Amino acid sequence: MKTTADPQVIAEIWAVICDRADHPKEGSYTTRLLTDAKGIDKVLEKVGEESTEFILAVKNGVSGSTASEAADLLFHLLVALRAAGVDLSDVMDELEHRRK
To answer: What's residue 5's pLDDT?
Structure first.
C-alpha cells in the first residue's frame, strides 16, 4: 500500500473550507456551495452525486477514476460537515475511538 501522501492535506482542505464559510470569496466553488439558496440541500445533492460516481468507478474497476471520485466525495463530505456545523475534529475523534 502506497503511503507517501501527506494526510495533512485533509486538514489544509478543511481549513480552506472553514475560511470560505467564515469569509466568503467571490468566485469560490466552496463559497457557492455553502451559500446556495438551497442551503445544505445543495451540498447534500453533491455528496449524493459524488457517492454515485465513486460507486460506479469502483464497480467498473476504473482505478484512476476511483481515486478521483473518492477525492471529489471526500471534499464534498467535508463541505457538508461544515454546513451541518460538525467539526472535522469530532469525526477524527470518533475514528480514533473506533480504532481502539
So the answer is: 75
